[in-house]
Amino acid sequence: MKRILSSPARLLFLGLLPAVSSCFVAQPFEAPDAEKTPAEYRRATPSQTADTLSAAQLPWDSVFQDPLLREYLDTALQRNFEQQIALATLTKNRAYWRQSRRAFWPQLGLNAQQNYQELSSNSQFGGFFDRIDQYELSGNISWEADIWGRLSSQKRAARAAYLASQEAQRALRTSIIAQVARTYYQLAALTEQETIARQSVRLRKKALRTSRALQEAGRLSAPAVAQARAQWLEAKALVTRTRAQYRQTETAFQLLLGQAPQPVSTAKLSALAEPPGLSTGVPVDLLQNRPDVRAAEQTLRQRFQLVNVARSAFYPRLSITANTGFQSLDFNTLISPQSIFLNVVSGLAQPLFQRGQLQAQLTAARVDQQVALLNFQKSLVTASGEVADALTEMATADSLLDYRRAQVLAYRQATQQTEALLRRGEANYLEVLRAQENLLNARLQVVELRLRYLEGRTRLYRALGGGWRARS
Predict the structure, then answer these.
(1) Dihedrals φ, ψ of 463, to 5°?
(2) Beta partners for residue 110, in sequence order
(3) What domains can be seen in the chain, in order of their start residue?
(4) What is the spatial distance between Cα 390 and Cα 54, in angstroms, rounded to a whole number?
(5) Could you tell me which of 100, 217, 312, 329 has the fewest CB atoms within 10 Å of its CB?
(6) Could you give the CA distance from residue 409 to residue 131 in angstroms, rounded to a whole number?
């Protein structure tokens, strides 16, 4: 067999190959700073202060303590359709990342073939052969030197894409937890609103009978009776609307759980324990806790590495390919020392004129990187604003709830006093109806504000980035 590396120049070339491969022109990634992040959140009241430990570090079962809600959250995290799709996408991106880690390895292949050829008598070898049978059993290996860091950058980009999808799956998890909790609270609130509405129907029906009796006794006018009947019908309409809204919310809730529509059990809204005090930490914590912010950062990292890939396309690519095996015109002598062949090809390809394609690809990659940076900054500012808005909503609902509860007591007293005056003939029945109407609206407002407060705390927990960590 002939010596392949007989030339000193070839020996020198292969000897310098590791040193050449160590050259790396790709730029290292630097994480973006958070200089646009405010020092602290915009707070609803000046008395609110940041704590050092963010509530985002609490697992969701420490925040939502209602037993029924916990069961629903467990079901949603296992069966929610969007969650399952995100996990499948994560598996796909993990496979791409693992494949990119093997880009530095040589490619191996096996080949077995038979080549049958009938020659024309007027062809170059037609006067010597009528036909040619050739058999081949060979293996090939090829390898590309990562001189300019193209393969390394592709590997880092694939890893960043995988981590971005992982953070996106975590962000979806926090969103599902918040949606399930909020919808559960809405169902509990609608149940209580329906109860209040049915009580109002019974009271107003009784009031309607009383007003008719007073009309027959000549103590009440016909317009007052008509007003009492209108209020009774309005209460019945409220029951119907509340029941329909409950059914629609119940269907949406089951979709979150990945189940077909079926009845849902909830605790009473007044019996629901409030989540424990949620500390906010400082806005810079969002870089560590918010999965969507972390996903935006990983996307920025991926775009940065793709710029390195596009830049490396302007430089030469060094590759080595070897092919060896057995080759023979006679199948009986295929496996023999005389049939062994070897072919080694080393190449250095330098692009010269590509009609502007490489420059366009580099420009597009840089634009994508700039867009990813803007999206990262936007996600951080948006996250900070969501925390501030949740704090404002909680503080507002809490303050209004105190007012509305006091208002309910006042309207209840006013209704009782007006009814007593009516029995003594010192008040008009329309005054009683107005007092009852005000009491109903106040009670419904208490339920609505209680719901807003619980939803605000849930929204705050999600805005801080809580919910994706393992259960306690």
Answers:
(1) -65, -30
(2) 139
(3) 36-104+146-315+350-463 (1.20.1600.10), 109-145+316-349 (2.20.200.10)
(4) 15
(5) 217
(6) 108
CA distances to 128, 207, 395, 466 from 377, rounded to whole Å, are: 76, 61, 28, 20
Residue 135 bridge partners (DSSP): 114, 328
Query: Six-digit token pair at 189?
Result: 């609130």
Contact assessment for residue 119 and residue 132, using Cβ atoms and an 8 Å cutoff: yes
Q: What is the pLDDT of residue 405?
A: 85
Q: How far apart are CA 414 and CA 427, in angstroms?
A: 12
What phi and psi, each to the nearest 5 degrees, are found at residue 59? -65, 155
Query: What torsion do the CA atoms of 417, 423, 424, 425 make, to the nearest 10 degrees?
Result: 100
CA distances from 356 to 362, 383, 411 (A): 10, 40, 78
Q: Ramachandran region of residue 281, left (φ > 0), alpha (ψ -120 to 50) or beta?
A: left
CA distance linking residue 388 with residue 398, whole number of Å? 15
- Measured CA to CA, the distance from residue 254 to residue 434 in angstroms comes to 40
For CA atoms 343, 346, 352, 353, the dihedral sign is positive
Residues in a beta bridge with 114: 135
User: Model's pTM, two decimal places?
Assistant: 0.76
Question: How large is the angle between the packed helices 81-100 and 150-216, nearest 10 degrees?
Answer: 170
Residue in the block written with tokens 């006794």 = 217
Burial of 53 (0-12, 13-18, 19+ CB in 10 A): exposed
pLDDT in tens, 183-221: 999 999 999 999 989 988 888 888 788 778 878 877 778
Cα–Cα distance, 449 to 441 (Å, whole number): 12
The alpha-carbon radius of gyration of the chain (Å, integer) is 38
Q: How far apart are CA 71 and CA 77, in angstroms?
A: 10
pLDDT of residue 343: 85
* CA gap 387, 462 in Å, rounded: 9
Q: Which residue reads 């199948």 in tokens?
A: 331
**Residue ranges of the alpha helices (H) in 258-356?**
286-289, 291-312
Query: What amino acid is encoded at 181 in this protein?
Result: A
- Model pLDDT, residue 363: 92
Asked if the model's pLDDT at residue 28 lies above 50, the reply is yes
pLDDT at residue 399 greater than cutoff 80: yes
User: Which two structure tokens, joined as six digits, stand for 406?
Assistant: 């006091």
Backbone angles phi, psi at 234, to 5 degrees: -65, -40
- Average pLDDT over the chain, rounded to an integer: 81
Closest by CA to 349, choosing from 316, 309, 311, 315, is 316
Percent of the chain at pLDDT exceeding 70: 82
Per DSSP, 270 falls in state G
